[in-house]
Amino acid sequence: MRELTSATPASAAAARRQHHWRRDVIELAALFVAVATADLIANLVGHAPDGPALLCLSAAALAATAGFHTWWARHHGHSPPAPHTAGAPAVTRTTEPGESSAENGTGAGAGTSLWRVRTTVRDTPGSLAALCTALAGQDVDILTLQTHPLAEGTVDEFLLRAPAALAPGDLTRAVRGAGGRDTWIERADAHDLVDTPTRMLTLATRTAMDTAELPLALRQLFGRCTIRSTPPGTAGTDPVEDTLEDTIMRLRDPAGGTITVERAHLPFTPTEFARARALVELDAQLGTRVPENRSVLTLPEGNEITVRRAGPEDLEAARELHDHCSAATLASRYHGPVADVDRYLTHLLSPRFGRTLAVQTVSGRIVALGHLLWDGDETEVALLVDDAWQRRGIGLELLRRLVALAVEAECRSVYAVTQATNTGMVATMRRLGLPLDYQVEDGTLVITATLSPAGASARLR
Would you kindly state where each structural domain of the chain is located, as residue ranges? Predict the structure, then answer.
């Protein structure tokens, strides 16, 4: 915010008119005095016997007057008065939100840093005030504050702007000295400046638009955490009810099974547990949702295909794709008995476990499937292309779109599991133009592609 305080145009014009009027009166009076003085001197010189002496005195007086005028002009110039002096407009400069002191020139340090700090304090009057006072003593600005009530005490979560020279250890000690305990601190960025209600509404909107967004919304809500979806029927994984255990929360998946959210060190609070349950409940109320997203592509030989999102409603069409694939193609894709491949489709087509893209011909038959599967902190990509439609660029097109979805979901890498003899998959991964890592064990090849939001997006265009 920039604030300029000055006289209004009308008052400024009036001041100028008043200044001109006074100057004119003074100049006219000076003229009259000069004329009268000249007449007096002329009479004295013309009628007095000591006329030459009077002329010399007059010359000396004129010289003295000229010297005085020169001195006055040097010490009282006509330039505007300096700021913050009487009669001068005052200029006040304040810091824009998100602007550091180094940027606006008001700080003595070399800029500021954003920090997320969480600490537990006693639930007593004055505890928060003591904490805020300690932060102010370190020139730390509190941007946002969330409170998480506990049975004993309160967890306060701050977004702070601190001087860049302030070390994390000094910030932690200042919080501890004000009564904070179990303090956790990490770097923040501009995305954390969004307030919690706005963030929750944004995540709820994403979840309402697409079933596949629920795990991603939970990850974005809690930051660094691991999200795992377990299919129904898995022994020992279905909880009787939603549970919260320190750094682990388990939620009933609306599609069946369990969603497990886990953090390494920071315990979840009941407030965070309630937010997660609200997102899951919204997903359950809305049912399965797969947004319409179709694009038509022309293959090199001239055939047109449609690439779209696939879901549980495509189960029968996916089974027909299996019927058209050879046993070698199915074995290369699923790494198991060919007779059991159909049982994987329900899991693969569920939006809860990832995203699936289908390639459809003009007649409506699915000839290829591409899967992006959430696997905890990692993400798997898998392709299946009908034998008759292979080597036409379909696999590469699917893989590029899947990697673009992974970048959008802020995944750090994707991996593909295939046979070491599957040169087609290796060549397709290499054509992405991304850094690749290869691991071979017992004939199984795992290819991992490292993603970067800027670099991957540019290469995949």
Answer: 111-193, 196-286, 301-459
